[in-house]
Write a structure and sequence with these properties.
heterodimer, A: mainly alpha, two-stranded antiparallel ribbon, 4 strands, B: mainly alpha, globular
């Protein structure tokens, strides 16, 4: 068995090994209730990583997700009293539009996706700062519970966040694996020129991929906002690196084409386990970002498909 | 950033060539902006206000010049936020440890900070070239590591630098402009010298203009790339020193906002993301555009958050305008 054959299973192996290691250090890690809560806490990050998967799957990247989520926390908080549960539609619509515009700028205007999404992120930030009046806002607790109380809570010991995450994962998986759109995504990720030559409307597929990543960023922002019961132009900061790490550690390479949403599930779980390991090992909170940065570099180096890049710029 | 280039098509229908237009457009934009703000609010034109713009712009100018070299090579460096934070914090620790005033051995902290910057850039270049990771991602990850490192060193605290001699960067004025503006000017000239009068500078353009050709003519492209990133790191550290001199504080947040401002400045100044075009004077114009917009908006009374949005739109427009659409089939 060579390393190349082993590669698709590496994320799974990493996850199992990590879980066993952390469990060996701290047996209370396997306490089911605590474990469920641990996973439930990371659901907004998982949703963001799901969206990021689409952008990376086609070989692009979406650096605006964090700012889209920030904007959504503000939008949700400001308009909750007025629109109730329908504020979710506004939020998701905003994410979809911002993502679609990023995609349009990338595909039709030939602006590399990291610049286009970076810039769109700052436009979103501008909107968030305007709407919030540069203050940290908080939700009316009653209105929140009436509209979004269902997001958090337990049914038969299962936190509702996990159900939401499961549903979104199922939708994303269905889109990716059981639709022509999903096939087209894979074709674009595997080789854009070949996809064009075979008559696919590549531009539309890429725009849709970015729109999806924007949509998922918005859902993540909405959940985050409800969870913390407020909105702020900086609330979701720090999520971007973790989302990218989750996707790449899961085995979807920066060059796109392979991997997918199930990989991102594994990647997110790896991130959770590493995080809780750092807590058990009493790694200083200030060191965590550095460690994730290094993990990111290692993950990219291990997954990237160098045969696709004649010149690495 | 994977781009595929087909043959360059030459010539276009405009009476003024597209290249001439792209070359002079940034300067025109700057002049128009200045005229606009001056019309809206005459106080914009005062020396005091210009000094304010230049003080705010100096650290970003240094960072933007650093990334200019990398962009000329057709790569990109997004590590500036982390690099600036690490350099600022490393400088502050060394400075205080060695005596806390420039009049003592603590001046050694200045070259040490620059070495730290060079080291960050060197590692950046190594990761990019040796592990064959696209530079935007390699440097973005390094930036996260840098911010994390700065956070670890400070534990989230602010470090104050109160040495009067060092703070004279801001407090001492010659002809109404503080010393840091002149320091930035000197480093701008050094960058210009590197760009036009050294082999390294010409090699940056060779790599950016066409990597295949550069390789075919025997250039060690990997070495040029690593040196480019290292040089960028040195300029990031100068930016960090000026930023610390301006505020008198070194902290993890010292590097905040540098990434978007400097990339915007470089691109708006007319240096193409595809490499091979532009240079440090473009970057000077770009930085001035960014800070004139920021300052002018405050002067005419617009709230600060409008600036982020305007810069976001500006950077997209600048990339669109500087892209020769006939020569590109797709971008990632």
């Amino acid at each position: 068995m060579t390393i190349e054959k082993l590669k698709p299973y590496l994320p799974w192996i990493t996850l199992v090994v990590l879980v066993l290691l952390v469990g060996a250090i701290n047996p209370s890690f396997f306490n089911p209730t605590a474990l469920l809560q641990l996973v439930a806490d990371i659901v907004p990050l998982f949703i963001m990583a799901l969206g990021m998967t689409f952008a990376i799957y086609i070989g692009g990247i979406d650096l605006s997700m964090q700012q889209v989520a920030n904007l959504v926390t503000v939008v949700a908080t400001v308009y909750l009293a007025q629109f109730g549960v329908f504020v979710a539609l506004i939020c998701i619509g905003a994410g979809f539009v911002i993502g679609a515009v990023s995609g349009w700028i990338t595909t039709r205007q030939f602006v590399p996706s990291f610049v286009a999404t970076l810039a769109m992120g700052f436009i979103a930030l501008s909107g968030a700062r305007f709407l919030s009046g540069e203050r940290a806002l908080s939700m009316n607790a009653e209105a929140r519970d009436a509209s979004f109380g269902w997001m958090f809570g337990n049914t038969a010991g299962v936190p509702h966040e996990l159900v939401i995450a499961g549903v979104l994962l199922a939708i994303a998986w269905f889109l990716q694996s059981r639709t022509t759109f999903g096939r087209a995504l894979k074709a674009v990720g595997a080789g854009e020129l070949a996809a064009v030559a075979s008559g696919l409307n590549v531009d539309r597929i890429k725009i849709m991929a970015f729109a999806l990543s924007g949509t998922f960023a918005a859902i993540a922002g909405l959940m985050f906002s409800v969870k913390l019961s407020g909105g702020d132009a900086n609330l979701a900061n720090g999520f971007l690196i973790l989302a990218i790490v989750a996707v790449l550690v899961g085995g979807t390479p920066l060059t796109g084409g392979v991997g997918g949403v199930i990989n991102t599930l594994v990647g997110t779980l790896i991130v959770v386990v590493i995080r809780s390991a750092m807590v058990y090992l009493e790694v200083d909170a200030t060191m965590q970002q550095m460690i994730f940065g290094i993990i990111l570099i290692i993950a990219i180096a291990m997954t990237i498909d160098r045969s696709k890049m004649r010149i690495v710029k | 950033m994977a781009t595929t280039e087909t043959t360059k098509t030459i010539g276009s229908g405009f009476p003024i060539g597209r290249e001439t237009l792209v070359k002079w457009a940034p300067l025109l934009v700057l002049i128009v902006l200045c005229a606009f703000f001056a019309l809206m609010e005459p106080r914009f034109l005062s020396t005091r206000n210009f000094a304010r713009i230049l003080i705010a712009a100096s650290p970003t100018l240094m960072v933007a010049i650093g990334v200019t070299f990398v962009i000329i090579m057709g790569s990109i460096d997004l590590s500036m936020e982390g690099a600036v934070s690490v350099c600022a914090v490393a400088f502050a620790f060394c400075f205080l440890w060695l005596g806390g005033t420039l009049a003592s051995w603590a001046w050694l902290a200045l070259p040490i900070a620059m070495l730290v910057g060079a080291a960050v850039g060197f590692v950046n270049g190594l990761i990019h070239v040796k592990l064959k990771i696209p530079s935007f991602m390699a440097s973005l990850a390094m930036g996260f590591v840098g911010t994390g490192l700065a956070l670890m060193m400070t534990g989230g605290d602010r470090i104050r630098i109160e040495d009067e001699l060092f703070r004279s960067l801001l407090t001492e004025r010659i002809l109404n402009f503080p010393l840091m503006v002149y320091v930035a000017g000197i480093f701008l000239l050094i960058a210009w010298f590197i760009q036009t009068r050294t082999t390294l500078g010409r090699n940056f353009y060779a790599v950016g203009g066409g990597e295949d050709l550069a390789v075919a003519s025997g250039l060690n492209v990997n070495r040029v790339r690593i040196m480019g990133f290292t040089l960028a790191g040195v300029f990031f550290s100068v930016g960090a020193l000026l930023a610390v001199g301006r505020l008198g504080i070194a902290e993890t947040a010292t590097g905040n906002n540098f990434m978007f401002l400097s990339i915007t400045a470089v691109v708006v100044g007319g240096t193409a993301l595809w490499g091979g075009i532009g240079g440090v004077w473009n970057t000077l114009v770009g930085v001035l555009i960014v800070f004139v917009i920021g300052n002018g908006m405050v002067v005419i009374g617009l709230p600060g958050y409008v600036q982020d949005g305007v810069l976001g739109i500006l950077v997209i427009l600048a990339v669109i305008l500087s892209t020769d659409r006939k020569s590109i089939s797709f971008v990632k």
